[in-house]
Amino acid sequence: MTYHRDGGQRGGGKELFRELYEAYYAPLCLYAFRFVREMPAAEDIVADIFAALWDRLPEMELRDGRADTCTAPSRTAV
What is the SS3 assignment for 65? Predict the structure, then answer.
């Protein structure tokens, strides 16, 4: 299933992005904190992940994105 930032499934990409952000921002910050041990750095990592997600949203195919989303902080922190 493909989601587009300006339309498409579930009210469009903006709605999907909001849902992903609300669901995953806090847990990802805590997960990233385990690697960097500084909350501001963890929040920066997660902000970078969501910025990259927003940039790629027009051409992304989303399946069960939890696995990719949860490994992104550890890849970014390293």
Answer: coil
